[in-house]
Amino acid sequence: MLDLGRTFLQSVERSPDAIAAVEGDTRLTYAAWLEQILRVAQGLDELGLEHGDHLLVVLQNRLEMATLHWACQFLGVIVTPLNWRAKPEEIDYCLIDAAAKAIVYEEVSAEAVAQSAEAPNVPRIVVGADAQATHAYAGLLAAEPWTAGPRATADDISLMLYTSGTTGKPKGVPRRHRQERAAALGHVAQNQYGIGECTLGVMPLYHTMGVRSLLAMALVDGCFVCLPRFSPAAALALIQRERVSNLYLVPTLYHDLLAHADFARTDISSVRKLGFAGAPMHDALLLRLDEAFRPELFVNHYGSSEVYTMAVNPNARRKPGSAGRAGINTRLRLVRLETTNPDDLAPSGTEGQIIADLAGDEAFEGYWNRPDANVKSLHGGWYFTGDTGYLDEDGELHVTGRVDDMIISGGENISPVDIESVLSLHPGVDEVAVAGLRDERWGQRVVAFIKRKDAVDGEALDAYCRGTDLANFKRPREYVFVSEIPKSPVGKILRRKLTAGEFEPDRS
């Protein structure tokens, strides 16, 4: 299999004059972008980065970050991106854990780098200007282009993504060139991308969804439109200006696009394909998106950093809530919630833990420097995701949440997602999250946290639930109205904050 450097050369050779990357007023053809990539590669080489070294990147979704990603693929350097909001202690941890040989940052992350105890020990490359930097990104661009050709192989590590670390130390997920290329090829096939697609590059390049969009566009000689920091107004303007043909976003960003005042006056006719991942999409939002965009294709992806696409539903509107079947590079099983035996299958029709075959082409091989995490998650050649789900009568997967999010109330296992899907359809509900709070009698009681769209109270919502097919034991016992649902930077609901009381009540 080709490495990713040679993969990029394919596109340059096929379509040298096609627009490959856009940010603001900058528009680069494949040929022009290659020259910048090779200059940056040469600059990194002159700084002493060698094959197999890690480069820590703390940038927003700007052109420089995408360029660095590709430069590392040519050099055989392992690009190791972090959230640009990373705290000094997170930077310290990752610099040490990855033994990174340099760090790249920008103004928005400069303070955290300045407060990092470990950053002074490595070259500090700034995009823009910062007195603490030892080198400037502009200096990399001034180097002569790298001429040695790709020095990575398909078996080399391409990048290492860090998990969020919300429940402990972040876990490094190293992924090889062949795994990344297989994932990108699968993404192209499962989204039915054609030559010359144009995507909005807004999902973070420190997240697997952002990386997949970047690589997929190169495979189809397409255009990656950088949006450094998400804003609904900016995203809508770019969709119209650049004639974006596909969107691949988390549900939260879709929600924010639809809710923005500019949506109604934006020309979105170029968008033919919608895809989502990262979190379940509630029925109400899915229906609103289908009505607003009328896409040719509406795809639900279920995956992770460890195994990119585990399941895919190419027609999300046909059966809302279904994640479909295993992706083309993956095998899936459902096992009993409490087991570590990949052959201990969950009984038909019951909820179980989702596991994926580590022999799949997209699957990682284990966490970086974390034998404890491997012991917890890798068993018998399978990756235990920690996600729960069930198979419906058609054999399609429905993801119901995390094992840790499962509410056990009065001896019943209750999935928050089932309740959220019902409540999301109420016209007075803008967003909803369900969690289990400690209860002396029930162990946990089901609590719904509601961000209101219109005036509604708990009695009305309870009456609404009673009129649906939601089982009585699943009905929320309490409704809490909040100003915002707490989420991670990529749009995942942070239920731990809700259960800890870390939210702003709606006082209206």
Largest sheet: 5 strands, parallel
Computed structural class: alpha/beta
The total strand number stands at: 26
How many individual domains? Answer: 3
Determine and state the CATH class of the largest domain: Alpha Beta
Outline type: globular
Number of helical elements: 15
The CATH topology label of the largest domain is: Rossmann fold
Task: Describe the strand arrangement of the main beta sheet, using strand numbers.
Answer: 4-3-5-6-7
| Uncertain regions spanning at least 5 consecutive residues | none
Second rung of CATH, namely the architecture of the largest domain: 3-Layer(aba) Sandwich
Fraction in helix: 25-40%
Please give a quick description of this structure.
This protein is an alpha/beta fold and 508 residues long.
What does this molecule look like?
There is one protein chain. The chain is of the alpha/beta class and 508 residues long. Helix 2 packs across helix 3. The chain is globular and about 70 Å long. The strands form seven sheets. Strands 4-3-5-6-7 form a five-stranded parallel β-sheet, with helices on both faces. Strands 12-13-14-15-16 form a five-stranded mixed β-sheet, sandwiched between helices. It has three domains: 1-8 and 28-188, Rossmann fold; 230-403, ANL, N-terminal domain (Rossmann fold, 3-Layer(aba) Sandwich), CATH 3.40.50; 406-499, ANL, C-terminal domain (GMP Synthetase, Chain A, domain 3). Helices cover 30% and strands 25% of the residues. The protein is built from 15 helices and 26 strands.
